[in-house]
Every structure is written in C-alpha cells, then in structure tokens.
Amino acid sequence: ELSGPQIAEVRARAKACAEQEGVSKEQAIALRAGVFTDSDPKIKCFANCFLEKSGFLVNGQVQPDVVLAKLGPIAGEQTVKDVQAKCDSIKGADNCETGYEIYKCYYNNRAQI
Q: Could you say which residues of the chain have pLDDT below 50?
C-alpha cells in the first residue's frame, strides 16, 4: 500500500507527464484504470514518460533494480521478479510504444503486484 506522500508523488508525476505529452486528465485516468483502447499515440508517450519519471525506464530500457527497490517492499520481491520476467524484455517500435507495452504488461499482471 502506498503512503500519502507516495500517492502525492505519483499524482505529480502523472500530471507533469500529461502536460508534457498533451494528454487530457480523462485519458490519464483511463490508462491508470487499465483502459487500453485509446489509440492516441500521445497516450503511449504519456505511459513512457510516467515510467521514466518513476525511474523504471531509461531510454527504453527497464531498470530492474529500481523496479525491484520500489515495488518489492509493496508487493514482495519474488512476486515482482516474476512479473519482471514476463514484462521487462518487451520492446516496441520506439520508446513511447515500449513504455506503453511495459506499462500494460505490469498492469495486466497487477494481481501479482
């Protein structure tokens, strides 16, 4: 479970990325709710931006140690490693698509996280 300051940090990151990528608040909320039907390419860049600002992605490369350090205490280390094994090697046509597909994979495996 995230603490109050952690939730505020996540919201601030999402807001900054929405502004940077030109995504509406509704689009950002839909993505967080697991709605992956929006074909707007800005959504993919928003997901990538969010993962980059979280430290999970750098230039389209997953930072497994950062992911484990941030999600391990919340979800359990082995659980996070299992999801990493499924998701971390995903590559899209560009960084935006890679970030989006990784975000989607983590979201779809959230039952474990």
A: none
> Would you call 57 helix, strand, or coil by DSSP?
strand
Q: What is the pTM of this model?
A: 0.89
Q: Is 91 left (phi over 0), alpha (psi -120 to 50) or beta?
A: beta
**What's the confidence (pLDDT) of residue 112?**
64
CB 46 within 8 A of CB 31: yes
What tokens were used for 43?
């959504």
CB 18 within 8 A of CB 24: yes
Q: What is the pLDDT of residue 42?
A: 97
Q: How many whole angstroms separate alpha carbon 29 and alpha carbon 86? A: 25
Identify the CA nearest to 28 among candidates 50, 1, 52, 8.
50
Dihedral of the alpha carbons of 79, 93, 52, 42, in degrees to the nearest 10: -110
